[in-house]
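Before surveying the methods themselves, let us examine one representative protein, written as a sequence plus integers encoding its fold.
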Amino acid sequence: MRRKDFVFTSESVSEGHPDKVCDRVSDEIVDLFFREADKAGIDPYEVRVACETLATTNRVVIAGEVRGPAISVATIEETARQAIKSIGYEQAGFHWQNANVEVLLHAQSVDIARGVDAAGNKDEGAGDQGIMFGYACAETPELMPAPIYYAHKVLENLARARKLGQGDAAKLGPDAKSQVTIRYKDGKPVEATQIVLSTQHLEENLSSDDVRAIVEPYIRATLPHSWITDQTIWHVNPTGKFVIGGPDGDCGLTGRKIIVDTYGGAAPHGGGAFSGKDPTKVDRSAAYAARYLAKNVVAAGLAQNCTIQLSYAIGYPEPLSIYVDTHETGRVPEDKLEKALPQIMRLSPRGIRDHLSLNHPIYARTSAYGHFGRTPEADGGFSWEKTDLVDKLLATFG
């Protein structure tokens, strides 16, 4: 039985965090391949991208394996530069225009392609082995755990204010981290006991108190009003000065923020990162599918909490196992959900891609502020956040 009274903490990092810069660049490359494939009349099912990015002081290295349209090194380099510009890096140690960008992409392994590609009677197989988890809970309207949801929102709102030049928020830099500790009573979030915010600032003479004066109004506007009390403890730029930020201050790498990307530690993670991967890689697509199914189970009122695990073997189309845990909050037996869910949605890589319309340039926007708990978009972005299976689930289980 899950505890009813406890405190729980989740962290987030901004789009300017070194690792998130790398996630953004890698996902921009995925989007680029889908866009160029469409222009060239190439079947999007033929696109393959596994792109890793490393960033350090005025240097970006892009490496990995690809298949699809012929794209010049210059185009890939310019795509990376525009991503960095959009984030806001124009500092001496990391500048979108001056950084040395090295592109080391090469053709996908034929051995991997043989296992993944459809051929004859063989359906498209999973791009790798692995386990993936999806989770949903009734803590927020977005059916996300409250600590990670609000940790993301704090940074997202500060980044928006920074980019719009709203008041003193213009004095902040792109690199930032947040952490929110929430107290639960009777299983429901009721209070923020600790708030941590570290943000880069562009004026060297700003103190921690100065930065708190800038960010506190945005944090108070983001969290539910009653959650911040006189007992809430604040930690704003606890080490003092934070001027050197981004990859100039700390090396970044794609895929190092997998807990930030998912549920903030409130649910398991399979271990595979998302960014830089096309949807044949089940690390990404099956994690999206698992979230989609878990969210619909909770949205349908079949459980208050739902964890779903899927597992795959490289080259095989169907999941090897499906596990559902409703944490003693369900009104439908878990074994029945395990049998029904793959009947409602086919969970092969191709089935997931078709159902969630994943063969489109929708990935760069996922690279910061979480892959889950977002609003579905008209062009297919965040399609896994839809709750359009509720009627089917209710028809199945009543």
User: Anything to note?
Assistant: The two ends are 26 Å apart (CA to CA).
